[in-house]
Amino acid sequence: MASPGSGFWSFGSEDGSGDPENPGTARAWCQVAQKFTGGIGNKLCALLYGDAEKTGGSSGSESPGVAPRKAACSCDQKPCSCPGAEVNYALLHSTDLLPAGDGERATLAFLQDVMEILLQYVVKSFDRSTKVIDFHYPNELLQEYNWELADQPQNLEEILMHCQTTLKYAIKTGHPRYFNQLSTGLDMVGLAADWLTSTANTNMFTYEIAPVFVLLEYVTLKKMREIIGWPGGSGDGIFSPGGAISNMYAMLIARFKMFPEVKEKGMAAIPRLIAFTSEHSHFSLKKGAAALGIGTDSVILIKCDERGRMIPSDLERRIMEAKQKGYVPFLVSATAGTTVYGAFDPLLAVADLCKKYKIWMHVDAAWGGGLLMSQKHKWKLNGVERANSVTWNPHKMMGVPLQCSALLVREEGLMQSCNQMHASYLFQQDKHYDLSYDTGDKALQCGRHVDVFKLWLMWRAKGTIGFEAHIDKCLELAEYLYNIIKNREGYEMVFDGKPQHTNVCFWYVPPSLRNLEDNEERMSRLSKVAPVIKARMMEFGTTMVSYQPLGDKVNFFRMVISNPAATHQDIDFLIEEIERLGQDL
Question: What pTM was estimated for this model as a whole?
Answer without folding.
Answer: 0.88
